Amino acid sequence: QVQLVESGGGLVQAGGSLRLSCAASGRTFSTYYMGWFRQAPGKERKLIAGIRWSGLSTYYADSVKGRFTISRDNDKNTVFLQMNSLKPEDTALYYCAAGTVLSANTYDYDYWGQGTQVTVSS
């Protein structure tokens, strides 16, 4: 059974940091892209960062570029999202997802985690 399990969300003040983790199990993701999406209340789910398991290629949305860093630990089958200089507008439910292409479209991803809430207070 394929599972993606996110953790690391929480409540933080503006300017603070959080590190999200996404632990993958149940299959080999070496050819997959891993994406971090977020969805704020009443808004669409959007891709904010992506990385390929087998390479160093990464993607960042303009809204998080320079503040967020995506990385992976192949030995632990885990993808991380280091979030610094957090802003209230970063408040959202954060999801990790696995797909065969790097895409902003949610339907291009085969597997999803359950989400972890990030709340940034002003």
Describe this structure in words.
The protein has 122 residues and is mostly beta strands. It has strands at residues 3-7, 10-13, 18-25, 33-39, 46-52, 58-60, 68-73, 78-83, 92-99, 109-112, 116-121. The strands form two sheets. Strands 2, 4, 5, 6, 9, 10 and 11 form a seven-stranded mixed beta sheet that branches. A hairpin with a 6-residue loop joins strand 4 and strand 5 (46-52). The chain is globular.
Descriptive key words:
52% strand, single chain, mainly beta, 0% helix
**Strands, total number:** 11
Oligomeric nature of the chains: single chain
Largest sheet: 7 strands, mixed
The low-confidence runs, each spanning 5 or more residues with pLDDT under 50, are: none
Proportion in β-strands = over 45%
Which structural class is indicated by helix and strand composition? mainly beta
> Helix tally?
0
Helix content: under 10%
Termini gap: 40 Å
Overall shape: it is globular
Over the alpha carbons, how many angstroms does the gyration radius reach? 13 Å
Topology order in helix (H) and strand (E) letters: EEEEEEEEEEE
Overall pLDDT:
93
Secondary-structure topology with pairs:
Elements: E1 3-7, E2 10-13, E3 18-25, E4 33-39, E5 46-52, E6 58-60, E7 68-73, E8 78-83, E9 92-99, E10 109-112, E11 116-121
Parallel strand pairs: 2-11
Antiparallel strand pairs: 1-3, 3-8, 4-5, 4-9, 5-6, 7-8, 9-10, 9-11
Short description:
The protein is mainly β and 122 residues long.
